[in-house]
Amino acid sequence: MTQSVLIVDDEFGLADITADVLREAGYDVALAINGKLGLESLAQRRADLVLTDLMMPVMDGPEMIRQMRADPRLAAIPAILMTALPEAVPTGDAGLHDAVLVKPFSVAEVLSLVRQLLPPE
Amino acid sequence: MDRIDTGVPGLDTVLNGGLFKGGVYIVEGAPGSGKTILGNQICFHRAGQGDSTIYLTLLAESHTRMIAHLRSMGFFRPDLVSSAIYYISAFKVLEESGLDGLLKSVRESVHARKATFVVLDGLVSAEEFAPSARAFKKFIHEIQTISGMTGCTVLLLSSTERAAGFRPEHTMVDGLIELGDTVIGVQSLRHILVRKMRGTRQLRGRHALEISAAGIKIRPRIEALLHTPDEHDPAPRPTGQANFGVIGLDAMLRGGLPGGSNTIVLGPSGSGKTMLGLQFLSAGARDDQIGLYLGFYERPPSLLAKGARLGLGLDAARERGVLHLLWEAPTEGVLDAVVERVLRAVVEHRVTRLCFDGLHGFRHHAEYPERTRAVFSALADELTRRGVTTLFTLETADLVGSAIEVPIDGVSALADNILLLRHVELRSQLYRLISILKVRDRAYEGAIREFQITDRGVVVADTFDSAEQILTGAARTVAEPEPPR
Question: How far apart are CA A115 and CA B321, in angstroms?
Fold first, then answer.
């Protein structure tokens, strides 16, 4: 079965390109523009990995992952926080996210990290 | 109404105290004029003051790239981005849900972050998505409502690529700030112009805007910033006399220059203007009067060497802290920056004597040469108010001869005193002459005297006899052998 990735980012330029890269690599990709819409997407369609931006309107990335971890159906989904401001990543929530991807990132970096957290079946 | 400071050097001065808390301001400018840096710089400053701030972009461009550039700026503080500055993009919201969706996003973000300062970057995008001019005006009104209800101050950054001139939203907001980049000759100059500022008297007109690694700095136009003299000002109180320590010259001046006055020393290149200025500072230093020299051409080491050759004791005066030397490159620069530097040094060192060596060099810094007279007037008045006795040297064009052409219009009329140095050629020999053209409200000797630069400093002849001989040629004729009968 095709592995699926949810990308959550209010900046759609980068999100669109990242989605194209992952689609070309064989992943099924969905997009959302904030954490709240990301959770709504997860309620409707399966995702094997979540890439989420840190700062977004309505609901930010850390809050979305927090709510995923509190939901038994979503708790095990690995999550990557993407940000241009790594110093703004919360340090208090140990184990909340699985990796941080610092923007700007290369195609190789994002593919390498996704493959690391989502080994081919 | 409470004010908030922007933390941008010079901007709060131009705004006459900062932005009003809860106000909505439009910042307009062409791409590259500094809007994004300005918005971010204020965000970081406000965050540092304890505000929760949001930087919301409506542009398709990436925050990532913007933040990468900001990292090199002096105001960027990583500790603040984790807690007090929140970068979000609403372009997709705008694209999908229009202005209503954008307003909802702004409202929710301000509420969720308890934001007290918001920058909305890309007002032009909101206008593009507005179905009508009326809908766009309603959007601005709604932003004002949000700021009014929450006390949140909002900056709306807008590109001026669209039609310039009056726009309906200009009438709605509390302030309108324009950033520009003008090419004058081959020089490119950024400026800021506060077109509108409700509830206060901003410093009107254009002010220089500089962008460096530290961020934006505004140089308020000095003539607008300094006290403007008017007819009701009390006459300056005499503060004694400032002598030159040159017997002949002090005698011509009946003791010295009036304390706190300004003097223009006119003369061609090589006539001794700089030497006279150094002599003036040297004489002051001997009486522990603190002096400042500002030059545009000769650098301090060269001046000190020259002073040493003439026995002026400048090195010792500098070591004792009674003489300070400043040097400005006579290349393109900002006039206001030069004046600011001089006035700061005057205050910092408690200067009572100033030699401003090269009003002509000063003019190189004038992006608009017609400003030179106004800036000179403001500076001279400020120095007088501070009790500083000042010599301004000004180079005249003609090297030899009796014609005098003052190269900066109107400056001589503003001067309290004018000294004139001249070269006179007689029988293949050049002589220096000095005369006083004007001393305000004081008697002086109007005669022309010979002026020499010797290894004992400046020497002015005790009487006008030698000058008279030079001018008439008598000095040489008496020395010539009588023709054979």
Answer: 69
Residues ≥6 apart with Cβ < 8 Å to A37: A8, A58
Contacts of A88 (CB under 8 A, 6+ apart): A54, A55, B78, B81, B82
CA dihedral A54, A57, A59, A62 (to 10 degrees): 10
Q: C-alpha angle with apex A102: A99 to A108, nearest 5 degrees?
A: 85
Cβ distance B471 to B448 under 8 Å?
A: yes
Averaged confidence pLDDT in chain B: 85
The span from the CA of B258 to the CA of B40, in Å, is 50
B71 in contact with A, Cβ within 8 Å: no
Q: CA of B289: how far to CAs of B225, B242, B243, B340, in Å?
A: 28, 9, 11, 22
Lookup: tokens for B2: 């409470």
Q: Is the CB of B108 less than 8 angstroms away from the CB of A103?
A: no
ipTM of the complex: 0.74
> From residue A8, how far is each of A34, A53, A57 by CA, in Å?
6, 6, 11
pLDDT at A39 over 70: yes
Unique residue bearing structure tokens 């030159």: B244
What angle do helix axes B133-150 and B91-113 make, rounded to 10 degrees? 20
User: Residue B252's CB: how many other CB atoms inside 10 A?
Assistant: 23
Helix-strand-coil split of chain A, %, nearest 5: 40, 20, 40
Burial class, A105, CB count within 10 angstroms (exposed 0-12 / middle 13-18 / buried 19+) = middle
Instruction: Report d(CA B32, CA A72) in Å as an integer.
Output: 50
pTM: 0.74
- CA distances, B58 to each of A52, B34, B132, B303 (Å): 20, 17, 18, 56
The share of chain A scoring above pLDDT 70, in percent, equals 100
Inter-chain touch A14–B60, beta carbons under 8 Å: no
User: Residue B478: pLDDT above 70?
Assistant: no
Residue B242, both tokens: 């400032």
Q: Which residues of B touch A12 (CB under 8 A)?
A: 60, 89, 91-92
